[in-house]
Amino acid sequence: ALPGQWELVTDPAFRFGKGAVSASPDSRAKWNIDGSGFTLYAPVGPEYGKARAYVNGKDAGLLDFHAEQAGAARAVLKQSGLKDARNALVIKVVEGRVPLDSIEVHD
Questions:
Q1: From CA 98, how far away is CA 73, in angstroms rounded?
Q2: Nearest CA-CA partner of 26 in 57, 51, 53
Q3: Cα 85 from Cα 48, distance rounded (Å)
């Protein structure tokens, strides 16, 4: 992530009590992953919007973080069976503010 694109926040809705929220409409984040899969976690709530996910450059779907009531972090994207030893996950904000929590990598 580029400086200024994400704000660090402390909130019990995040799995470990801390996370990041997009600070600009063009915020993006990238993880390099060594493993055959991953699970991305994030909270949901009325203040959050949507982001597009890309795995190894391919569209992996629209992630909707908006909910009428705030909710604790949950799995928002799961991937398995990735064939490359090294993989990349990119999240690009599409609408509103987007929360990022944590990622679990699977062997």
A1: 13
A2: 51
A3: 33
Q: What is the mean pLDDT of residues 70-75?
A: 96
The pLDDT assigned to 84 comes to 73
What gap in Å lies between CA 47 and CA 32, rounded to an integer?
Answer: 28
Question: Which residues are bridge partners to 58 per DSSP?
Answer: 55
The label of the residue with tokens 């944590």 reads 102
pTM (two decimals): 0.91
Cα(33)–Cα(50) distance, integer angstroms? 22
Question: In terms of DSSP H, where are the helices of 1-107?
Answer: none
Of 98, 47, 93, 102, nearest to 70 by C-alpha is 47
